[in-house]
Amino acid sequence: MDYYTEKIRELSAALLKDEKVDLVIGFKQGTIPMATSPHVARTPEQAQQFIWNNNCSINLTNYLTNRKEKIGIIAKGCDCRNIVTHIIENKINREQLHIIGVPCKGMIDKTKVASFFNEEITSYSEIDESIVIKTLSDEKNIAKKDILKANCMTCLHRNPVIYDDLAADLVEEQEIEDQFADVRKIEEMTADEKWNHFENLLKNCIRCYACRNACPLCYCPTCFVDESGPQWVGKGQDATDVRTFHYLRAYHCAGRCTDCGACVEACPMDINVRDFTRKLNKDSFEMFGWEAGLDQNKRPPLDVYSPDDPDDFIK
Amino acid sequence: MKFITIDKKDWAKGIEKSRKTYQLFGPVKDENGFLIKSLEHDILPDMDYYDSVMSAKSILFPQTEKMLCATLDESKKDHHIMKKAEIDYSPRAVVGIRPYDAKAIMLVNLNFDTDEYRDPYWCDAYEATTFVGLGINKPGPFDFSTSTGTGPFGEEGLDVLLADLDDKYLAKVLTNKGEVFMNACEFKTQADEKESQALFDILRKEAEKNIASHIDTAKLKEKTILELHEAPFWDDIAFSCINCGTCTYVCPTCWCFDIQDEVKQKDSVRLRIWDTCMSSLFTRHATGHNPRETKVQRVRQRFMHKLKYFLDKYDQGIMCVGCGRCVKSCPVNIDIREVCTTMNSYEKQD
Amino acid sequence: MENPYLPYPVRIDDIEIATEDKSLKTFKFVFLNPEDEDKFSYQAGQFAELSIPGVGEIPIGIASSPVEKGFVKFTVFKTGVVTAHLHNMKVGDIMGIRGPLGNWYPWDKLENKNVVIIGGGFAFTTLRSSIIYMLDPANRSKFKNIDVVYGARSPGMLLYREELFEWEKRDDINMHITVDGTDDPDWKYHTGFVPTIVEQNAPKADEDTYAIICGPPIMIKFTQPSLTQLGYKEHQIIMSLENRMKCGIGMCGRCNIGKELVCKDGPVFTLEQINQTPKEY
Q1: Are C67 and C136 a contacting pair, CB within 8 Å?
Q2: Residue B307: what pLDDT?
Q3: CA atoms within 13 A on the CB side of B232
Q4: Which of B258, B263, B291 sits opposite C54 (nearest CB)?
Q5: How far apart are CA C280 and CA B305, in angstroms?
Q6: Do the Cβ atoms of C144 and C180 come closer than 8 Å?
Q7: Nearest 5 degrees, angle CA B23-CA B27-CA B29?
Q8: In this structure, what DSSP letter does residue A124 have?
Q9: Which CATH number goes with the domain that contains C169?
């Protein structure tokens, strides 16, 4: 990972020095173990703060929306796909961007790491494909493959789909036998089981909207939950209102979601909101052969009419 | 001061006995981590918890609370006349609350119990609640509570402070409320006052020694509000903020709320719901004008409120108890300790 | 102590369309329990929460005057959810009023002083309350000269027109009514924006002269230089602010400018005070 960091710093500093971009958006080291923080560099010196490690899960495309400058951005495969979606949706121009693509072997899941311990984590370091974690009274060496984020485990596009530079050599893509096994598991539930599953999933939601705000695709100037005239959704903890928010948000990402997992990463309550978006990704794939963000010249499935649409009602 | 020894073998039985008079709240673990919740039936507080994403504030200040209700049915004599919602203020106890969370409740009291107005929802709940704290023997890496006037064995706001001594708890009974609770549990084995206090002192010192994280707030007071408000560092601090409400909701001292009316058939209720200064709706006028339109303004508001406005208004320190929850939960790791350092060390350039 | 969130029940006693575009209506409320009227004892400059069960609350300046008994009056601009609902309500409907809230114009300090009242558009409500209060026979002698500059877009948009023209005829108050423009050939008052009319007509400041301003932010912004030119110092300029509010009692946290809460520490501030705080209004 140190190699990635060095290369990112070098490429970013050069872009800024040569005035090819006004700013570069990347990650800097966080203040606590396993934390990183989005960072903007406007000078080559500031680019020296950039880092890359297994905790760069947040999707930086979130910081591009409607910006006017010429921007360098560090992007993993899923982030690049999100950038493509942004370009398709006219939230940013390709010409404004200099993409430093990061071929990615997956990010790690903090909750999975925490589950190995009964104490707070005090230190984190990376050695090759494993992670060394310390707590006040314990130390463990954990293989990265055992603590990968769920979305990384099923990722089919680890390599950037568009880029101007690469921070490392391209990596081998994963062979996934059943890409939507998680969704199928829920689909196979009875109605009651499904109801209980989702009720349980959302019972601790505090409606902080971190999932929405961490999602680059949730850029509506006024989200439907914030609309006051008319007010569509109550603002309290009523279960129906909480569900309405999550269901509608997921539908609004149908055919757009690139499964970057930023929503889950951001959730302070560790709610797997991907249970919603994954189903819609699966439907997009099965009904329309669509994976979001692979081609900036193709319109998304819910954006086009096709004479051979599988549904009758539209014909 | 009275000290009581509780053998851990007797703990569960005693807690069960208190249920006759108290509704109990405390830490419990579920798939999303530790939460401070109502302890239904025979669930005991999980005294081995080492963090909880959410603080104990919701026990006095639920995220959604009915304040008033009225019938809209015009055939009823009292239609459209609002009445206070019925709320159960029978005795409740929070068992295992962190000392910094109890201190936070004292800070929030300053907002809800004032010379001019008394917020009955908060105040009645506060009066109904007994706070049984648990000293933190091994403070976590996010704890900077010694810098905020509390610490792992702070007593402010507590009725009882428990120290975990492996096979037993040593309880320091701090108030009459605390005494009543201990009686309800039938915890009666008195311990020697001098020895117990000495033991508490040792535990406190040991725990405080383990706190590695500190902030300096000494120079905040002398700076003017405008000086800090107009300082050049806010753009940098706010850059990564995604304007979610996490920091404000996990914070034990954030008290801002919204008031919303809801109607079901002919019954209307007025609710109070946690609100967040991170949301642009928080200050948006009906005309669309918004005094804090940008995220930089909103991030600045949060830190200025905690570290300057509150300090100047009440002269009771900063509005932060050093629990570190916001540091840990922030999706983009905006760290109040760093912001505090930046503010505290800022010197205006002329 | 009583529950500060619980409104007093009131009945709508009268509704009057206040401006020609019907965007403003004046509501006259009567307390259902007569003893509540005593509890709702207010000063000119205060506001209250108009409270409609099932819809919500809205903070509005009190337009009636403490010297007017038996009712309270509010003039409400239709803009959001609650005000739109209120505009559709009828005489006889029951709702609530919570207050009085906030501070008021500093009447003690203004005794034996010249007072210049400057208002624009529909922010004239608490100023009406103030003028009625000052002109009351029991109070008029407490104040020296009273000047009023009040402007609206057009004659039909002036609030309380009949009262304005009555005051115009009196010799114990100097009225300077203005409109941005009019095609009425019989318009006998000023034409022009408030800041200009202030500059041309308001008295020059001496130590004993205070100005009270209430109006949209843009008017306040451009009136300040006019007053400064006339010699008004920061402490002689008194302003009433608006911010989004919910509780109205200093607890819900949204209306602050710096450490001051507009709902409880305000809404009335001197320019001197405002200049010490972030201008987040």
Answers
A1: yes
A2: 97
A3: 4
A4: B263
A5: 13
A6: no
A7: 125
A8: E
A9: 3.40.50.80
Residues of A in contact with B334 (CB under 8 A): 37
- The CA distance from A281 to A300, in Å, is 12
Torsion angle of C-alpha atoms C142, C145, C146, C147, degrees rounded to 10:
-170
Tell me: do C86 and C38 sit in the same domain. yes
Give CA–CA dist B26/A24, Å, rounded. Answer: 46
A171 plus A136 within the same structural domain:
no
- Over range C199-223, report the average pLDDT: 89
Q: Which residues of C fall within a CB distance of 8 Å from B310?
A: 259
Beta bridge partners of B168: B7, B165
The CB-side HSE value for B204 (13 A sphere, CA atoms) comes to 16
C147 and C183 co-located in one domain: yes
Q: What is the average pLDDT value for chain C, to the nearest integer?
A: 94
Per residue in A224-276, pLDDT (tens digit) is 999 988 889 999 999 999 999 999 999 999 999 999 999 999 999 999 999 99
Is residue C161 helix, strand or coil? Answer: helix
CA angle C133-C136-C139, nearest 5°? 80
The domain containing residue A127 runs over which residues?
110-147
What are the tens digits of pLDDT across the range A177-186?
A: 999 999 999 9
Q: Which of C57, C78, C79, C81 would you mutate first to test chain A, the one with the most A CBs within 10 A?
A: C81
Domain assignment of residue A21, yes or no: yes
Among A203, A143, A182, A192, residue whose Cα is nearest residue A261:
A182
Q: Which of A147, A165, A199 is the last residue of a domain?
A: A147
- Sorted by where each begins, the domain ranges of chain B are 2-61+78-209, 225-344
Q: pLDDT per residue over C1-12, tens digit each?
A: 589 999 999 999
Query: Is the torsion defined by CA of B42, B47, B48, B54 positive or negative?
Result: positive
DSSP state, C53? T
Tally of domains within chain A: 2
Q: Closest Cα partner for A110 from A56, A151, A147, A59?
A: A147
Tell me whether residue C250 is in a domain.
no
Residues C114-137 as b or e (16 or more Cβ within 10 Å = b): bbbbbbbbbbbbbbbbbbbbbbee
Q: Which residues in chain A have Cβ-Cβ distances shorter than 8 Å to B63?
A: 206, 236-237
- Between CA A108 and CA A34 the distance in angstroms is 9
- Yes or no, beta carbons of C80 and A229 under 8 Å apart: yes
Residues A156, A120, single domain; the answer is no
- Beta strand A23-29 pairing with A71-75: parallel
Task: Show which subunits contact A, needing at least 3 CB pairs below 8 angstroms.
Answer: B, C
What are C71's two structure tokens? Answer: 């009712």
pTM assigned to the model = 0.94
Q: The tokens of C241 are what? A: 């602010």
